[in-house]
Amino acid sequence: MNHTRQGRCQCGSVQYEVDGEPVMVVVCHCTDCQRQSGSAFGMSMIVPRGAFRLLSGDVKMFVRKTDSGRRSTCAFCPECGTQIYQEPEFVSGMVSVKPGTLDDTSVVRPTLQTWTARKHPWLDLNADVPTLEQQ
Questions:
Q1: Where are the domains of the chain?
Q2: Which ranges of the chain would DSSP assign to H, the alpha helix?
Q3: Model pTM score
Q4: What is the side-by-side order of every strand in the sheet holding 4-8?
Q5: Which is more confident, 91 or 47?
Q6: H or E element at residue 55
Q7: CB crowding 4-42: b at 16 or more within 10 Å, else e
Q8: Which CATH code fits 4-118?
Q9: CA angle, 12 as apex, 99 and 97 as ends, to 5°?
Q10: DSSP secondary structure of 41-98
């Protein structure tokens, strides 16, 4: 079944849509994702680049080096600072949408957890979701 999902930043200046199902939904415990999310982990909904489309607003971009040493181009709202998506070089042709920015987050289910070697010790992992100690 083909779904179109919409999302936005906190202030609503940037709005987007994603067509179809995600390739995967990743929970990442790396220190970069912890810092970016301001929490114990970050989440990414991986979709083909062609399935993602900005509906309104412009994003500001910056490039960062990840814990794995690869580069990731990050897109965020220049007004409120909400990160909307990333384009990691290790998944060419894909966009990593931040699923917390979806209008309906109830559909998001993790399919993989990465960098579990860096997870907080108080956090219990779901045994039903495959894990990688690194990425």
A1: 4-118
A2: 31-37
A3: 0.85
A4: 4-8, 15-19, 52-56
A5: 47
A6: strand 52-56
A7: ebebbbeeebbbbebeeebebbbbbbbebbbebeeeebb
A8: 2.170.150.70
A9: 20
A10: -EEEEEEEGGGEEEEES--EEEEEE-TTS-EEEEEE-TTT--EEEEEETTSTTEEEE-
Is 96 in contact with 44 (CB distance < 8 Å)? yes
Written as one letter, the residue type at 112 is L
Tell me the pLDDT of the chain averaged across its residues: 89
* Token pair of 108 as six digits: 């998001």
- Percent over 70 (pLDDT), the chain: 96
Paired strand residues for 60: 76
Q: Are 97 and 82 in contact (CB under 8 A)?
A: no
Instruction: Give the integer Cα–Cα distance in Å for 29 and 32.
Output: 8
